[in-house]
Amino acid sequence: MATTAELFEEPFVADEYIERLAWRTPGGGSRGGEAFDPKRLLEEFVNHIQELQVMDERIQRKVEKLEQQCQKEAKEFAKKVQELQKSNQVAFQHFQELDEHISYVATKVCHLGDQLEGVNTPRQRAVEAQKLMKYFNEFLDGELKSDVFTNSEKIKEAADIIQKLHLIAQELPFDRFSEVKSKIASKYHDLECQLIQEFTSAQRRGEISRMREVAAVLLHFKGYSHCVDVYIKQCQEGAFRRNDVFEDAAILCQRVNKQVGEVFSNPETVLAKLIQNIFEVKLQSYVKDQLEEHRKSDAEQYLKNLYDLYTRTTNLSSKLMEFNLGTDKQTFLSKLIKSIFISYLENYIEVEIGYLKNRSAMILQRYYDSKNHQKRSIGTGGIQDLKERIRQRTNLPLGPSIDTHGETFLSQEVVVNLLQETKQAFERCHRLSDPSDLPKNAFRIFSMLVDFLCTEHIDYALETGLAGIPSSDSKNANLYFLDVVHQANTIFHLFDKQFNDHLMPLISSSPKLSECLQKKKDIIEQMEVKLDMGIDRTLNCMIGQMKHILAAEQKKTDFKPEDENNVLIQYTNACVKVCGYVRKQVEKVRNSMDGKNVDTVLMEFGVRFHRLIYEHLQQYSYSCMGGMLAICDVAEYRKCAKDFKIALVLQLFDTLHALCNLLVVAPDNLKQVCSGEQLANLDKNILHSFVQLRVDYRSARLARHFS
């Protein structure tokens, strides 16, 4: 059986079990070269099966025995549990009886305690009254003999007694007890002073427990507030030694906040009183010293200091909001800030506007002085308005042209300075203005910016630029107005950015928004009118310059050469110079403007350029070779027109080029050319006018073909 047990392994697998049994049987396999002996293996299997049956019977008997034992123990355990339950019920009943008995006894004890207290309280009061009468008699006799008054270590007990005697003395008639009342009051005052002195000494020694004990005694004395004052005063000793009074104040309050709850029964009141003292004494004195020094002498420094001090004060207030200062600490701190700055904030905007006005005027004057320019006044009134209306409708220069020597009288440095001053003014306005006055004050600052930047600087430069534009018939005129346009355009972008970034947040939710937008719109429209006028007159001058070039360089013999067979040039000298001039002006326009304005101006310039060349070509007669040269010139003009990158201008020159073909086409082909795609829609008079320019027009053959 032992051998059989050894063949069992966990986990049990029947196939592996048979394999192990066969392997252990001699002749059961090929192990060691032995021959296979099936009979012996069968015999071994039969014997092993018998062993397994015997083992199974033994195990079965053991299992039955264990089951019987388990059933017996289960019955015994169940019986024991029933007995325990019965015992538990008995114990629970005893517990209920005991609980009822305890409740009964407790009720009796409480009743007895109430009776004892009812008897003891009057007795204690009588004893207390007797003691107070005893102490009162000592004051009445004028000699304090009790140990409580003579022993300095019993100052706490003495304070309690004298406080009660002081209350009693106040109820006594003055005529009979004036002397004793005076003595009690004197002792009350002496003890109060001793307690405050003891509190002061304990604070200097850093004895928190002693401070708390003395403060609790003084709480019932009139001098309790003086104790708090002493505490506040000593807290500040040596606290403000650095240059930054605001940081010192924050550190002090942080330190006191941790300590005050351990000393006083009302820490929020004491901390609030400390903060009030810091604001009304330290900060107010510091602010006054910083501001009064520059208030009348230096507006710029005054405003910078006011903004800085107010900002740092509000930041300190934000830090103090973390502390417990009572119910409405926001209102409390706001009132403290207002008490410091109210005299400065009442007239803040007047100081701001006055400074901004003077500063802006100085920036402009310094710029004009650097240019050695005496700023001329732009007239106002009926005559000037009449001139302005005439100039807008006729585009005629009224008055003599001014030579600006290429100076635009616009400076980005000036603009940046003005915008920077205004930006700082907006920031101060946002911080220092009352919320109800903020939109109104911001509008006043914006109006100052419009006056000095837009009117006094940009508008003046536009007026000067307009006056500097020469007449259209001037020769070799220098055109600087496009430089004015370029700089004005850049300035407009900066002006608009500040409007959106710094003014809009201050007025976005107020009625002043529409007023500011309208003011901005009006000033921009006013300047756009002058810019349009200046650009139009500049284009006229460009066309005038081109006329002078054509008049000086174009010869009649260019298009009717004496020797038709000896023409060596591809296009005329006049064409070369005009195209060179036009290309420079196109480049200048592109550099001076942006967006759709470039296309608009170039379209107008291109149309006028086309009209000039069209009218110019109408002045000459053309031989066959001269017509070919005119076509070459127009082809060059058309190539120049491509630089405009405007479809209409290129189309006009394409049509003009097609018209020039009428100068050279054979008479028999005139009708065919005129009905071509580019010329079919033109008026017949225009076609006729070009054909008339041919030197052979009067020949009967040509007239007959064109009729």
Automatic annotation (TrEMBL):
Gene encoding the protein: Exoc5
Signal peptide: none
Domain Exocyst complex component Sec10 N-terminal as annotated: residue spans: 38-146
PANTHER family: EXOCYST COMPLEX COMPONENT 5 (PTHR12100:SF0), SEC10 (PTHR12100)
InterPro entries hit by this protein: Sec10-like, Sec10_HB, Sec10_N
GO cellular component assignments: exocyst
Protein name: Exocyst complex component 5
Alphabetically ordered keywords of this record: Coiled coil, Exocytosis, Transport
Record-annotated Exocyst complex component Sec10-like alpha-helical bundle domain positions: 157-706
Tagged with keyword GTP-binding: no
Coiled-coil regions, chain positions: 49-87
